[in-house]
Design brief:
- By secondary structure, this protein is α/β, with parallel strands linked by helices.
- It is about 35% helix and about 20% strand.
- The protein has helices at about 60, 105-120, 120-135, 150-160, 185-200, 220-235, 245-255, 260-270, 285-295, 300-310, 310-315, 320-325, 345-355, 365-370, 375-380, 415-420, 450-465; strands spanning about 5, 20-30, 40-50, 50-55, 65-70, 75-80, 80-85, 140-145, 165-170, 210, 210-215, 240-245, 275-280, 295-300, 325-330, 400, 425-430, 435-440, 440-445.
- Strands 1, 2, 3, 4, 5, 6, 16, 17, 18 and 19 form a ten-stranded mixed beta sheet that branches. Strands 11-12-13-14-15 form a five-stranded parallel beta sheet.
- Strand 3 and strand 4 form a beta hairpin.
Length: about 475
């Protein structure tokens, strides 16, 4: 990706008289992530009714608008709100970093599933509020949830209160018999997903969507997978699931069925342009071909791979996916298996892992990594028309990074500085839909101090009910 520095023609139009707008963010280094990947050294964004009216050089826009509020961004970088392609917001913030290092491929069934089985709606709301607070603090304004919600009403309430944009999904499967609280028949699983879509898709003024979803196709019968595919098509929503994060379930599937799983998924119809897959580490060449042909998107979660030893850098094919046009986004995953929802960290890992593993510094350049955390993840979620870049007509989702920091001073190579230097702590202000969610590092939509106290009180109880205990320090 090539960043073009300097002024460019304005996006949008202005009349002879100054037009009334709600918000004018002006004077900053403006990283648009538009088709030309323009970077304006003194840029501005005009916002009305939660949408971007115009983007361009400050000198050009200033005389065209009369703003209710102006934010002086002269010491800031203005960029799109980050888009997290895959994150678990329910439960895991009450069990942060709990699984030991050697959990590996066992972590989901031995650690995550018992916790999700034991959680109450109030605990799930608390965890989701803590997750949303962390996402805002790190500059994320849109996320794709990891299809593990038990009580959708609790999570929708949290996301709505936070002011974020999200695509959510409920926990469905039908093969595992344990934990008992998560046991589902095909009909029950389909009914849960259908109810969630009926009640909550389009909630919060359209900021919340709901996908048809399952935890993992190998934990679902063909009947359930066909039903979810039909549900997604009938309701016009996407289909989302995890796959091929680690080698063991793939090898088990091949041993049982005599065929690579993704080939069977294609035959079942659960691959396509509206399908969002997660991880996709252990694919062979034939499966990569099927993935490319299907048009499905992939959420790449490098933090999880490093934490659990999935083999992302050893066998992952993400550079090939990018080269062949797969819609790849980047995700933080959950804080039980990745320990942080800071998408800047994930972008840095996405840029660096394959450079080192293949000893090729040209792989996944900083500009590409920045795309992964913005417009590429938006496209992976099916929201590229709405978020991921600063352009007229899109939602006014933008973040402001403090340039008066070591990581951004001096600011010489914008893409490098943002990907390799910045992190969530560099974010000063977060705006979503034209609403200021954080300013001066203070989140305005969530009062977090009582939540921290409540989490410290209830987390040990939840962990005990789940039959788990923290590993000893070692």
């Amino acid at each position: 990706m090539r960043f073009a520095e300097g002024g460019a023609g304005r996006i949008g139009s202005g009349g002879s008289e100054p037009a009334a707008i709600d918000l004018f963010v002006a004077g900053g280094v403006l990283v648009t992530m538009d088709a030309a990947r323009r970077v304006l050294l003194d840029g501005a964004v005009a916002v009305r009714g939660g949408r971007i009216v115009e983007v361009g050089p400050t000198a050009d826009l200033r005389s065209h608008y009369r703003a209710t509020r102006t934010i002086d961004a002269r010491e800031l970088v203005i960029m799109p709100g980050l888009v997290d392609a895959h994150v678990h917001v329910s439960v895991e913030h009450l069990a942060r970093s709990l699984p030991p290092d050697d959990a590996g491929g066992r972590w989901m069934m031995e650690w995550a599933a018992p916790l999700y089985a034991a959680v109450t709606p109030d605990e799930e709301r608390l965890a989701a509020l803590l997750a949303c607070h962390e996402l805002i603090r790190s500059g994320t304004t849109t996320f794709g949830e990891g299809n593990t919600i038990r009580d959708m009403a609790a999570v929708v309430d949290a996301v709505d209160r936070a002011g974020l944009r999200a695509i959510l999904g409920v926990w469905t499967w039908d093969r595992p018999a344990e934990p008992v609280a998560l046991r589902q028949t095909v009909d029950q699983a389909l009914a849960r997903s259908a109810e969630a879509i009926s009640r909550w898709h389009g909630a919060a003024g359209g900021r919340i969507g709901v996908a048809a979803s399952c935890i993992h196709p190998v934990l679902c019968s063909p009947e359930l997978l066909r039903g979810l595919r039909a549900l997604a098509s009938d309701r016009g929503v996407g289909l989302a699931y995890h796959h091929a994060s680690s080698r063991q379930p793939v090898d088990q599937y091949v041993a049982t069925h005599g065929r690579r799983p993704l080939l069977d998924f294609a035959d079942l119809g659960i691959l396509g342009p509206d399908v969002r897959t997660v991880h996709m580490v252990h694919l062979d060449e034939a499966e990569l071909d099927v993935l490319v042909e299907s048009g499905a998107s992939v959420a790449h979660c490098p933090q999880t791979g490093l934490r659990l030893g999935y083999g992302i850098a050893a066998v992952g094919r993400f550079p090939e996916m990018l080269a062949r046009g797969v819609r790849v986004g980047v995700g933080t995953d959950g804080v039980m298996c990745a320990d942080s929802l800071d998408l800047f960290r994930a972008m840095r890992l996405a840029a660096g892992l394959f450079k080192d593993a293949r000893q090729d510094p040209t792989l996944v350049p900083a500009g590409t990594a920045l795309e992964l955390g913005t417009i590429a993840s938006a496209r992976a979620l099916g929201l590229g028309h709405e978020v991921g870049s600063l352009e007229a007509g899109k939602a006014a989702d933008l973040i402001l990074l403090d340039r008066r920091t070591p990581e951004l001073t001096p600011l010489l190579n914008v893409a490098n500085a943002l990907v390799y230097g910045a992190d969530g702590h560099t974010v000063d202000t977060v705006i979503a839909g034209g609403r200021v969610l954080m300013e001066g590092r203070r989140v305005l939509t969530i009062d977090v101090e009582p939540l921290y106290a409540e989490a410290a009180r209830v987390a040990p109880r939840l962990i005990a009910r789940a039959g788990l205990r923290p590993a000893a320090l070692r």
